[in-house]
Write a structure and sequence with these properties.
The complex is a heterodimer.
Chain A lengths: L6 H7 L6 H13 L6 E3 L1 H12 L5 H14 L21 E3 L2 H4 L1 H6 L8 H16 L8 H8 L2 H8 L41 E2 L13 H21 L6 H37 L3 H16 L8 H13 L1 H4 L11 H4 L1 H9 L5 H13 L17 E5 L11 H13 L5 E6 L5 H12 L6 E4 H10 L10 H6 L2 E2 L3 E2 L12 E4 H8 L4 E2 L4 E2 L13 H33 L4 H5 L3 H4 L15 E5 L1 H17 L5 H9 L6 H9 L8 H18 L11 E4 L4 H6 L30 H9 L13 E4 L1 H4 L2 H16 L4 E6 L2 H9 L8 E4 L2 E4 L5 H12 L10
Parallel strand pairs in A: 1-2, 4-5, 5-6, 9-12, 12-13, 14-15
Antiparallel strand pairs in A: 3-9, 6-15, 7-8, 10-11, 16-17
Chain B lengths: L4 E11 L7 E6 L20 E4 L9 H5 L5 E4 L4 E4 L20 E4 L1 E4 H8 L3 H7 L2 E6 L6 H13 L3 E6 L5 H8 L4 E5 L5 H8 L4 H10 L5 E7 L7 H12 L5 E8 L5 H6 L14 H13 L4 E3 L16
Parallel strand pairs in B: 2-8, 8-9, 9-10, 10-11, 11-12, 12-13
Antiparallel strand pairs in B: 1-2, 1-7, 3-6, 4-5
Helix pairs in contact in B: 2-4, 4-5, 8-10
Classes of the chains: A alpha/beta, B alpha/beta.
């Protein structure tokens, strides 16, 4: 991606000059990491398939442990020039594992279309790996087989628009276009490439392994993998062999011993490789560094870390080992890195073992590793390795330290699409953290995500017993986010974010059609009656609630089936060993062995669309009685053709994001209703499902399933992006958006909601703009919002606005005493503003 | 109690160029001046007006049927809709459930002071954090002095920071009570020459300059010069303005130069009015810098405010 950064501004913000090595590595990664298609490696998949084949008949959890160990032992130990760390997701900076088991039948179709895969590997995939999972042709070994078979036909219909009572489609395991899943040009051939269809709820659990968690880094730093192995051995030693419950724990505990042993071994492998490389190396500084790396790998990850460099390497090993267990996964999140790495950094500095500049260089090189292999070739892409800086300590005091600023500095230096950096802000956040974070933001990188630690604390405490025991205050303060911005009880929770997803505006469509789905030509919603007979707005609201309850129940069924299938067919051993209290309880994460067992989510999209639509109906049909329900229904059916003036009035009705109580209160009601409904439903691990709103990229695809809406949105157009207002309707500026979102009870949307906003470059893209953004972030904290993230308006945005003015009505140019709306300006004026924007010319500052 | 109503053009949140911090700018409708370069002609008339956005108009003619004043005609051949401004009362019949293309809008809405205050206090949180507040501009606030006075009093009673942008072309009796409710005032000095001032704005500058001198005795003030090439952008005029500013003493915080911009041109079209200085270009960066230095060397602080188009040549911006 072209780096369109304002160089002068960048120079102003950098406090420690990035080293030549960092810049060299950065250039290398940007130039050489495949931008179009990934490079696939099969080491893990082959090892897993072979191991699973050999271990047929053993308890599944032991089989998984051995498969993990085999994959770890198959991990290539290649070193790459100039890197102070070792180990990659799949052996090299550009590679990812192919993920054969997860892909299932889809891999059969796609493997010949992958651009960067050796022919030999392709052959191995076809001749050895695929046949194992395919079995007799029905993919029975795939855990998804069990899931699909066990679903009731009605839920299958809701999920895939086909009840498939005879399980005809069980052999065809679909794969949808997930973030992180590569783009493949496959010729779609009916009968050969048919997948499962898409119903009215989306299942988020079968496209990749669940991931979406943060666990183990602290434990391995403190104990090393051999220390955790000992924990499992100690627990085995305490087993009462006459107690049935205790006996059930044995296979898992034995599996943990195997897995931890394997994980401990990789250090030696890389130490040997580093020594061999050191012997070959001519450059003195690099030779010394390779010897140092060898020493480090002899120590970590088997043993506790002692230095900052060791700690970073230990965390990195802990992280990449996940891919040996689950080759396709996402959002495995390093979490609060500035907290658990700090003691190692502090000691090194105090003992004079490292300088600030050297520490910064390590941070920079470490950060860059999170982008490689998975994302540069995808536009929005990533596996979302989330890490946080800032935040609160256990005792409620501010947790900012040197590393908090250094990690932000590192993002300023490296400017890649990963990691997903969050800055935890709260009422006591110091100015230096906020200013640094806002500097990163106004450079236009899209980072960081601003997360309200105060709201997080309310969130955890408000969860009560939804996940088992109540979350204690100390843990509520020290837990951060994972993935995009989901609050997560770090190290102690079996939760993972993605369960299944429903479409909020669809609830209104069903309520307006007595449960009839226009797209599928059948009744898929609840039967809530003829909307023309609703005498009050309240009756319409009731109907929407009934639809929500109906669909949410199917979400629960889908999730539970998935969980049981995973627990039986793909239990994790490495992951479970690292989550407390699984070893002590002798149960996997999937079986609810953790201390807390929240989630996953029923997630949703389109709250703003639903709120705007309900507001329009309330105003024009019920309050002002200017339109009849019959007229409205006909207009929606016809996608407003022949109803243009009516369409205009619907578009002019109050819209969320403009700080207008009339519609904002309705959106708040929508989110409360959604949240209240979701937490009624449970998981298989002893906890409840939790509400979530984050469309990722789905707000476009989700729109394809929704017809014309009373908000004025036309049929099949994109829905709103999470809790961000519908594009183009927020014309009152960013503080109005904050106020609107602030009227929602954000702490009760337990997995959070995403608020993406656009900032004007002329207002924020300069030194004075940083101060404004800091003020806004403190207001964000005051208003108890959950999350916000910003993009600066680029010339591309403005060009888009020229092409699609309706979607960019809110874009402004601000000058003294004047606000010009970009889409109202003449074409040549727009062009000149774009040109100015591209040359990075900024307004002169004025002093207050 | 008789609540005065004010005619408001718009309420702009997140204003950053009209006072300290992040502010809300209330733009009043109605102005006694008729500056040739005015970028917001729809703030001149003290009555509500209809904007006809011709880029969206499809010439369908539904508005014609709806108009109660026979103010609309359609040239069917050219698919062009015309509004007879002498007949139009700004009632808005041509809009509601009529225009399918959002090609007609009303400019100007009435508020009571309470209603207006409820709107502006929505950003109280950001005012607190940023040291911002309310700025009243327009149009010309002093044309609705009674309303503005009551509104500012209400703001002050709630401890909000207040500022005003005014031409100061009004009686001192109207102006001074407003100043007593302000923390800061912005006043334009469009030209130091009385005759030239009158040619381009429609009014003399005598009253204005006298009011500025009196204001400087009682309130912090910022003088603004909209820099219009060919009118006031000469070194002599800026130098004279700077000297005038210096004589005002310590109340004068600084002089601001606002480069001419053309962001408002489309509004003339929408009002069916001709734009008087069609071919004028904004001043060049180099020229503005020179003017700023001249002001600076007269001993006062001078800043250039707002966006302007970057140029290469020094001579760009001369009136052709």
């Amino acid at each position: 991606m072209k780096d369109s950064i304002d160089r002068a501004l960048l120079e102003k913000f950098i406090t420690i000059q990035p080293t030549a090595r960092t810049m060299k590595l950065r250039e290398y990664y940007l130039a050489n990491t495949r931008r179009d298609y990934p490079v696939y490696r099969i080491e893990y998949d082959l090892a897993i398939a072979r191991s699973m084949k050999e271990t047929e008949g053993e308890p599944m959890v032991l089989r998984r442990a051995r498969a993990f160990a085999a994959a770890v032992d198959a991990m290539p130990a290649e070193l790459f020039p100039d890197e102070p760390f070792v180990g990659w997701f799949a052996g090299s900076p550009t590679a990812i594992p192919v993920g054969a088991e997860q892909l299932g039948a889809r891999l059969e179709i796609e493997v010949d279309c992958y651009k960067h895969m050796s022919d030999e590997d392709r052959r191995t995939v076809r001749e050895e790996i695929i046949p194992y999972w395919k079995g007799e042709g029905d993919w029975r070994r795939h855990w998804y087989y069990r899931n699909y078979a066990m679903l009731p036909p009605e839920t299958r219909n809701i999920l895939y628009a086909d009840p498939d009572p005879e399980l005809k489609k069980i052999g065809v395991i679909t794969r949808s276009a997930w973030p992180g899943m590569p783009y493949v040009e496959v010729q779609e051939i009916p009968g050969q490439t048919d997948g499962l269809g898409l119903g009215i709820i989306i299942d988020g659990m079968t496209r990749q392994h669940v991931g979406h968690s943060s666990f183990g880094y602290r434990k391995i730093l403190k104990k090393g993998f051999l220390g955790v192995r000992k924990d499992a051995e100690d627990r085995l030693a305490r087993i009462d062999w006459t107690d049935t419950e205790d006996l059930r724990k044995v296979p898992f505990l034995k599996g943990v011993v195997i897995a931890m042993d394997a994980a401990a071994r990789i250090g030696r492998k890389f130490a040997d490789a580093a020594m061999a490389e050191a012997r070959r190396e001519k450059e003195p500084w690099r030779k010394a560094e390779l010897e140092k790396i060898a020493t480090i790998c002899e120590r970590v990850p088997a043993h506790p870390a002692r230095t900052f460099h060791e700690a970073l390497q230990s965390v990195w090993f802990t992280h990449i080992l996940n891919w040996c267990e689950t080759p396709i996964t996402g959002a495995v999140s390093p979490g609060r890195v500035d907290q658990y790495l700090y003691p190692y950094y502090e000691k090194d500095i105090q003992d004079g073992r490292i300088t600030l500049e050297e520490a910064q260089e390590l941070v920079d090189c470490w950060l860059m590793r999170f982008t490689q292999g998975v994302s540069p070739f995808l536009p929005m892409a990533s596996f979302s390795h989330h890490m946080d800086v800032g935040g609160l300590k256990e005792d409620g005091s501010d947790a900012t330290n040197d590393l908090s600023l250094m990690f932000i500095e590192g993002m300023i230096h490296t400017r890649m699409v990963e990691p997903n950096l969050g800055v935890l802000v709260h009422s006591k956040s110091p100015n230096d953290l906020l200013f640094k974070a806002c500097q990163l933001c106004v450079l236009g990188t899209g980072y960081p995500a601003f997360l309200n630690n105060d709201t997080f604390v309310d969130n955890f405490l408000a969860r009560g017993t939804l996940g088992g025991p109540p979350v204690p205050l100390a843990l509520a303060r020290t837990s951060g986010a994972i993935g995009c911005n989901e609050p997560h009880v770090t190290d102690y929770d079996s939760e993972y974010t993605l369960g299944s997803s429903l479409n909020l505006p669809m609830m209104l469509e069903f309520a307006l059609a007595d449960g009839w789905s226009r797209i599928y030509g059948q009744y898929m919603g609840a039967r809530t009656g003829d909307p023309r007979k609703f005498e009050t707005f309240g009756e319409l609201q009731e109907a929407c609630l009934k639809q929500l309850a109906h669909v949410a129940t199917h979400c629960e069924i889908a999730i539970k089936n998935s969980e049981l299938a995973l627990a039986a067919g793909y239990p994790t051993v490495y992951t479970s060993a690292l989550i407390e209290d699984c070893i002590n309880n002798g149960r996997t994460r999937e079986e609810g062995g953790a201390r807390f067992n929240f989630g996953p989510s029923i997630s949703t999209v389109g709250a703003a669309d639903l709120g705007d639509s309900l507001a329009a109906i309330k105003k024009l049909v019920y309050d002002e009685k200017k339109i009849s329900m019959t007229e409205l229904l006909d207009a929606l059916e016809k996608n407003f053709e022949g109803y243009e003036p009516l369409h205009e009035e619907l578009l002019k009705a109050p819209k969320f994001g403009n700080d207008d109580d009339y519609v904002d209160e309705i959106v708040a009601w929508v989110m409360k209703a959604f949240s209240d409904e979701v937490i009624k439903h449970t998981n298989t691990r002893g906890g409840h499902l939790l509400p979530y709103q984050n469309a990722l990229g789905w707000y476009v695809a989700s729109g394809l399933f929704v017809g014309a809406l009373p908000s004025g949105r036309k049929a099949y157009e994109p829905l709103s992006d999470s809790i961000s207002p519908t594009r183009g309707v927020d014309v009152n500026g960013p503080t109005a958006v904050f106020n609107s979102v602030g009227k929602i009870d954000n702490a009760s949307i337990f997995y959070g909601q995403t608020l993406n906003m656009r900032l004007n470059k002329d207002v924020f893209g300069n030194v004075e703009g940083v101060r404004r953004l800091v003020d806004m972030i403190r207001t964000f904290v005051d208003l108890k919002l959950h999350h916000c993230q910003f993009n600066l308006v680029s010339s591309e945005t403005m060009r888009e606005a020229q092409r699609d003015p309706e979607a960019y009505k809110e874009l402004t140019v601000r000058v003294a005493g004047y606000v010009a709306y970009f889409t109202r300006l003449g074409r040549d004026l727009q062009d000149s503003i774009i040109a100015r924007n591209e040359h990075g010319i900024r307004s002169k500052l004025f002093k207050i | 109690m008789n609540y005065p109503r004010g005619l408001i053009h718009s309420i702009e949140r997140f204003s950053i160029h009209d006072g300290p911090g992040i502010r809300t700018l209330v733009i009043m409708k109605g102005c006694p001046l008729r500056c040739r370069w005015c970028s917001s002609p729809h703030t001149q008339s003290p009555k509500p007006e209809i904007l006809h956005i011709k880029t969206r108009c499809q010439g369908c003619g539904r508005c014609l049927a709806a108009c109660r004043n026979n103010a609309i005609s359609v040239d069917a051949g050219k698919k062009r809709v015309q509004t007879d401004r002498s007949r139009c009362t700004g009632c808005g019949d041509c809009i509601f459930l009529t225009c399918p293309n959002r090609a007609r809008e009303i400019s100007g809405k009435y508020y009571t002071t309470e209603e207006l205050f409820r709107k502006v206090e929505k950003d109280a949180a950001i005012y607190r954090r940023s040291g911002g507040g309310i700025t009243v501009g327009g149009g010309e606030p002093t044309m609705q002095a009674e309303f503005v006075l009551e509104f500012l009093s209400l703001c002050k009673s709630r401890f909000l920071h207040t500022a005003m942008e005014t031409s100061a072309h009004t009686s001192w009796e109207k102006l001074s009570p407003l100043l007593s409710r302000l923390d800061l005032v912005y006043i334009d000095v469009k030209h130091m020459g009385k005759k030239r001032h009158h040619e381009w704005t429609g009014v003399s500058n005598t009253l204005i300059l006298r009011n500025i001198r009196r204001a400087a005795k009682i309130i912090p003030l910022i003088l603004r010069v909209p820099v219009i090439p060919g009118f006031n952008d000469t070194e002599e005029n800026i130098s004279e303005t700077a000297c005038f500013a210096r004589e005002l003493g310590r109340s004068l915080l600084r002089l601001e130069l606002l480069p001419y911009h053309r962001y408002g041109m489309h509004t003339y079209e929408e009002l069916d009015r001709a734009y008087m200085i069609e071919s004028l270009n904004p001043p060049s960066e180099g020229h503005l810098a020179r003017l700023r230095n001249i002001a600076g060397s007269a001993g006062i602080e001078c800043e250039i405010v707002g966006e302007y188009k970057a140029t290469g040549g020094e001579n760009e911006g001369q009136h052709r």
